[in-house]
Amino acid sequence: MTFLRNMCWLVSVLLLGFLSCSVGFAKDSLENWRPSFDPSKAEFVYLLSCVGHPAIEGVAVGFKIRDRLWEESNGRIYVDFRPLSQLGGEKDVINKLKFGAVQGMMSSSVAAANIAPALGIVNLPYVVDSFDKLEKFRKNELLWAPFRDAALSKGMQVIDFTGYGSYGWATTKPVATRKQAQGVNFRIAQAPVNIDVYKAWKLKFSVLPWPDVSQALQTGVIDGLDHTPIVCSISKKFTVAKYYTQLDYAQGLYIHIINKRWLNKLPADLQEVFLRVVKEESAIARELTRQQEKDQIAAAKESGVTFYQLSKEDKAAMIKDCDRLYEVWGKRIGREYLQQVQSIL
């Protein structure tokens, strides 16, 4: 009994220490992002959530939107931006957004397919798989409009997106071929598209919440991570996973989704200002993300991370394996829309 009490005490101390460090880290991270103005007199408050860290350009845009909207609305709109999962996990926030308890969220693209299947189109492998294709997708009204309006039936609308880079594999052992990948247990997000992708590729995977990933890597529960170089570098995953395979099969996005009722309540002049600022700052953030990926890859290589690319034959085989996936998700997304996106891009 004494041993058990001592063990419980030790676990409690370690857990409290971990939580204290985590909270302190979040506070330190956000200290530099406090507004330089007093938002208490704002006529409209826009509570905006994101799970990401503001060191990522696609997340920091939330603060830039906040400051520009305050200035250009003459203090009438305050964007109360809450990154680092301050308002809860994405599934919880999606529900809050639907009912108006939260007015906006920058949802990760992997979670957005839970709102509307059409939003999963950006996660399908080798469809919107480069920065250039992403810009083409955003600027083409035929492609953008169905994506923008995909969640309208649920009282939500996509107003833009930013990103966090190109998806690939961070691993604790070298993966330069498809055959080597078959020996890895990859962590993937809690998202329907990703699960179907890894089943199509016939790869071993574990669905884990993001907060569990670091420990899972360190203890060997997983030895691979499906994510982008930006996130792996900034979140320190490269301290354990010293290899990265550049698949570039999809662009990781933060999809800016708004509660439509809240948007409709804004006066027409403020709606124009709001949507214009979000659009302009999101476009700037996407360009900054392109450069940030280059910088974080360079930094990772400097710190000893080895980067690989699959052969053309392996890549072609992975695309071929997705034929059934495109068929299944084509039914959910809309076959005509998926074919149109594939054709134009």
Structural notes for this entry:
The protein has 15 helices and 11 strands. The protein is α/β, with parallel strands linked by helices and 345 residues long. It folds into 2 domains: 2-164 and 253-290, D-Maltodextrin-Binding Protein, domain 2 (3-Layer(aba) Sandwich); 168-250 and 300-344, 3-Layer(aba) Sandwich (D-Maltodextrin-Binding Protein, domain 2). The protein has a 6-stranded mixed beta sheet. A 5-stranded mixed beta sheet has the order 2-1-3-10-4, sandwiched between helices. Helix 2 links the parallel strand 1 and strand 2 (77-82). Helix 2 (57-72) runs antiparallel to helix 12 (268-302) and helix 14 crosses helix 15 (335-344). It is globular and about 60 Å long. The chain starts with a helix and ends with a helix.
List keywords for this structure.
single chain, 345 residues, alpha/beta, D-Maltodextrin-Binding Protein, domain 2, 2 domains, five-stranded mixed β-sheet, 11 strands, disordered N terminus
Q: Average pLDDT value? A: 92
Structural class: alpha/beta
- Please give the domain count: 2
**Under the CATH scheme, which architecture of the largest domain would be assigned?**
3-Layer(aba) Sandwich
Series of H and E elements: HEHEHEHHHEEHEHEHEHEEHHEHHH
Gap from first CA to last CA: 65 Å
- Report the CATH C-level class of the largest domain: Alpha Beta
The low-confidence parts are 1-27
How many strands, what sense, and barrel or not for the largest sheet? 6 strands, mixed
Shape: globular
Tell me the Rg in angstroms.
21 Å
The CATH topology assignment of the largest domain is: D-Maltodextrin-Binding Protein, domain 2
Number of helices: 15
Biggest sheet, spatial arrangement of strands: 7-6-8-5-9-11
Total DSSP E strands: 11
Query: What is the percentage of strand-forming residues?
Result: 15-25%
> CATH superfamily of the largest domain, please?
Bacterial extracellular solute-binding protein, family 7
Helix percent reads: 40-55%
